[in-house]
Structure formats: structure tokens, C-alpha cells
């Protein structure tokens, strides 16, 4: 959720901004993200004042492709202090147990890639799967549409993205972007966020690049003073509202207010620990590092991420 809401809180804003956010409340589509979840099957909330958001990115990147893909899965932890957040990318190909399968597969628990949960049972099954995988209680769900996210980038006039390794794209001026800072329009930025096959570490690069795009959008919104420009504010918030769906229990206004202290520099980007890639049958998958993951997600669950980060500084993406 911080991906979208932090845009609104960066730079503070005034009373008019807050009233405008409230006016957009009914324009944000809602999804039944927790439908059918049984309380006894869910993790206990260990830190009442912290909040955990499941952010799901849906994409239709291929012409004629009508299947929504969950290429992005992030668990966003906002601690009790509400002054920072940790964004933890979970690889979409993570091999784990999905608690419910399709009827033709028997309908019971099945080992699969973690993003199969969304394809098989939408947001509720993905919530069950993520809670089972992490042991962390999901408080709210945000579904981001990549096409809509592109409109947010367009409203900003593009973003400055730090490219970490040579990136080939037909959309790049010379066909290749060398490492360094590059100004990207929405098409180029989303191409950068989608690509994995041209990088030796595949999905790991893609997750880092998605996080880089998020940081770039937040920085650009802050740099341009979107909150102080009525015209930009209108376009920006309407594009933002059109890019997301949220669970029915989430109040956009209240959440924005609660996260108002967070700035782009207050975000820490992480990736769920893994032991690498491998094959299961004919599927290329990513194997989770269960021991390391257990320690990370225990810190999230108990709102002890400051301690975990001090002990694992190399885990921060970009270090």
C-alpha cells in the first residue's frame, strides 16, 4: 500500500489535499480479499499497532493476453512508529504449499509456485498462502494494475531510474541503457520492471528493478511538489485511484493519515531469502531459504525489524 499512499503523504500537503483524498475514497475499487478465510486458520496478530499490507501487481504484458499475472508480490511492513516501512519482495516462482488447488487437481493443498494461488483462488487464496508461508497476519490487501501504474508515471512526466546493469530495450534511445541514472517514460519504465530473461539472475533482477521504479516514482512526486500544485494533484490522485483495488476494510483516507510521516528515504527494500533456482518436473522454480525466512518474518510478525536489519545489513537491496 505504501507504493500508492506514500505519494500522497510525501511533501505533507494541506487541508485541501486531505479533503481531496477523502473525496476519492469511493472511486477506489474494492475487492473481497478476505472472503472465506477462517479465523482459526490465520496467524495471530502479535503486534497490534503494526500493520502489514500485501501488495499484488497484476500485468497483461502480452498482446491478446487476457490472463492477469501476479508478477509482483510484496509484503509491506509498517511498524508501530508509522515513520518508515519495509518492502519485502516475494519471488513469484517461490515453491511452497498452496492450501487449496483447482477441482481437477483434487481441491486440496498442493505444492506450486506461490503466484499460482492468485490464479486459482484470487486474493483470498493468495492471502491464505502468504500467511501460511510467512506466519505473518495480513491486515490489508492492495492490487496494483501495471497499466494504471504507467498512467501515474505519465502524470509525473517520467521518472529518473538508476539502472544497475546494461538493459536492452527496443524502447531505449540507443537500444541499450548502460548503468546509471536514466529518465524513463511509462513504457520504458514498465519494460524495465518486467524484464527478467536478459539478466543472469532473472527474477531477482526484476524484483530489484520493480523496487527501483517504486522509489523513483516517490522521489519524482516529492521533487515536483505534486501536493502543492492543484492541477498536478488532481491528475496524480485520479491516476493513482484508477491504478489500485483495495480490500473492503481499508480506508484510504485513514491509511494516508496514519502513514503521513513516511518519506521516500524511509523505505527499506528487501527480498525474501532464497537458496536459488532449480527444477521441479518441467517447472523452473525458486526455493525459499526456510531458516532465514523464518527469522525475517518472525521479526515482521513481532514488529522487531530494526533488530533484524541491524543484524542483516547486507540483505538490504542496493547495499
From TrEMBL:
<dbReference type="InterPro" id="IPR050922">
    <property type="entry name" value="LytR/CpsA/Psr_CW_biosynth"/>
</dbReference>
<protein>
    <submittedName>
        <fullName>LytR family transcriptional attenuator</fullName>
    </submittedName>
</protein>
<dbReference type="Pfam" id="PF03816">
    <property type="entry name" value="LytR_cpsA_psr"/>
</dbReference>
<dbReference type="InterPro" id="IPR004474">
    <property type="entry name" value="LytR_CpsA_psr"/>
</dbReference>
<feature type="domain" description="Cell envelope-related transcriptional attenuator">
    <location>
        <begin position="69"/>
        <end position="222"/>
    </location>
</feature>
<comment type="similarity">
    <text>Belongs to the LytR/CpsA/Psr (LCP) family.</text>
</comment>
Amino acid at each position: 500500500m505504501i507504493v500508492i499512499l506514500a505519494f500522497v503523504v510525501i511533501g505533507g500537503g494541506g487541508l485541501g489535499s486531505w479533503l481531496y483524498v477523502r473525496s476519492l475514497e469511493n472511486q477506489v475499487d474494492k475487492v473481497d480479499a478476505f472472503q472465506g478465510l477462517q479465523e482459526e486458520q490465520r496467524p495471530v496478530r502479535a503486534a497490534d499497532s503494526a500493520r502489514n499490507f500485501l501488495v499484488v501487481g497484476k500485468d497483461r504484458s502480452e498482446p491478446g493476453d487476457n490472463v492477469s499475472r501476479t508478477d509482483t508480490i510484496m509484503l509491506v511492513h509498517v511498524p508501530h512508529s508509522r515513520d518508515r516501512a519495509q518492502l519485502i519482495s516475494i519471488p513469484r516462482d517461490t515453491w511452497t504449499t498452496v492450501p487449496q488447488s483447482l477441482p481437477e487437481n483434487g481441491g486440496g493443498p498442493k505444492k506450486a509456485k506461490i503466484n499460482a494461488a492468485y490464479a486459482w483462488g484470487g486474493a483470498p487464496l493468495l492471502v491464505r498462502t502468504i500467511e501460511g508461508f510467512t506466519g505473518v497476519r495480513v491486515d490489508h490487501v492492495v492490487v496494483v494494475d501495471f497499466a494504471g501504474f504507467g498512467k501515474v508515471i505519465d502524470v509525473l512526466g517520467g521518472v529518473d531510474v538508476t539502472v544497475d546493469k546494461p538493459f536492452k530495450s527496443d524502447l531505449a534511445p540507443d537500444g541499450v541503457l548502460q548503468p546509471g541514472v536514466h529518465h524513463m517514460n511509462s513504457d520504458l519504465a514498465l519494460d524495465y520492471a518486467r524484464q527478467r530473461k536478459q539478466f543472469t539472475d532473472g527474477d531477482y533482477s526484476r524484483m530489484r528493478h520493480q523496487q527501483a521504479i517504486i522509489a523513483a516514482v516517490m522521489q519524482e512526486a516529492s521533487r515536483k511538489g505534486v501536493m502543492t500544485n492543484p492541477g498536478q494533484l488532481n491528475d496524480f490522485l485520479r491516476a493513482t485511484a484508477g491504478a489500485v483495488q483495495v480490500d473492503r476494510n481499508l480506508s484510504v483516507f485513514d491509511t494516508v493519515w496514519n502513514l503521513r510521516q513516511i518519506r521516500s528515504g524511509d523505505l527499506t527494500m528487501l527480498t525474501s531469502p532464497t537458496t536459488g533456482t532449480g527444477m521441479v518436473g518441467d517447472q523452473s522454480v525458486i526455493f525459499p531459504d526456510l531458516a532465514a525466512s523464518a527469522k525475517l518474518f518472525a521479526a515482521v510478525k513481532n514488529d522487531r525489524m530494526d533488530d533484524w536489519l541491524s543484524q542483516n545489513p547486507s540483505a538490504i537491496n542496493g547495499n
